Amino acid sequence: MSKTGRAVFLDYRSLDLGDLDMTPLHEQFAELVLHERSTSEQVIERLQGARVAIVNKAVIDASVLGACPDLQLVLVSATGTNNVDLDAARSRGVAVCNCQGYGTPSVAQHTLTLLLALATSLAEYQRDIRAGRWQQSPMFCLLDHPIVELEGKTLGMLGHGELGGAVARLAEAFGMRVLYGQLPGRPPRADRLPLDELLPQVDALTLHCPLTEQTRNLITARELGLLKPGAFVINTARGGLIDEQALADALRAGKLGGAATDVLTQEPPRDGNPLLAADIPRLIVTPHSAWGSREARQRIVGQLAENAAGFLSGQAIRQVN
Length: 321
What we know:
Strands 7-6-8-9-10-11 form a six-stranded parallel sheet, covered by helices on one side. The two termini are 18 Å apart. The model has no long low-confidence stretch (mean pLDDT 96). Helix 3 (62-67) links the parallel strand 3 (52-55) and strand 4 (73-76). By secondary structure, the chain is an alpha/beta fold. The protein folds into two domains: 4-102 and 294-313, NAD(P)-binding Rossmann-like Domain (Rossmann fold, 3-Layer(aba) Sandwich); 103-285, NAD(P)-binding Rossmann-like Domain (Rossmann fold, 3-Layer(aba) Sandwich). It is 31% helix and 13% strand. Helix 5 packs across helix 7. The protein has helices at residues 23-26, 40-46, 62-67, 86-91, 104-119, 122-130, 162-173, 195-198, 221-226, 244-252, 294-312, and strands at residues 6-9, 31-34, 52-55, 73-76, 95-97, 154-158, 177-180, 204-207, 232-235, 258-261, 283-285.
């Protein structure tokens, strides 16, 4: 395939908010067609004659691949490739490349932001100020909600790849001790504690592991019950790692110091979610935005261009199938 090929980005609006330099990607193709978003009914029509499909969440399944015989490469503008049928792509000789490590600084920063917000009761104090409670206080300050120092506390981590390492370094800068848990389905390691040993020791638990059949519902009511009273739980990985109803119940019962999540099992949560109920105390939910700094999104553009250039030169990089 030469650089004269046609590429179609089916859902670029999930990446570019009008603040990115898309030049590196345009330079790889004679024609790059950008669609803000594409419905499942539009995907096949829009990919006709295209040699390259670029997707974030748009689905490329066996039916799409079968109906688009010119397709040779799928570039995923994310790490997860669950929206692409990798087996069908492989059988048809269609390469699939993803992006990796682009959001490490952004997600690590977001993780610590959530932890700090819980430790300082930031949301509760902001709510009280808006309600006029500080203005009515008989003292110069308002101290109605707990404030916890992170120094000297223990952070438990499930998942210690590039992102986990970045979070660990930030936590250690705050004086925290970091312990690592053993993930199911992984070979045992001397520096990884079984979950039942890890959880009772930690003051905060943060998740940075992939969602697999082994890690689905990794944290249920049982595991939450093993945590110290007052412990924090943070999830910036995948929603399915935690039993969301169990987490809501634990917070309502006051068994945790608080929880924060950037992810839910269904996104967007059009059908509701147990963690969106208005009566759950000490909970912060952010809309899968941890990865979304401009810098991180610009790195994705760069990696998409690198992946395209590598494939064009016969030296594919970040290929997953």
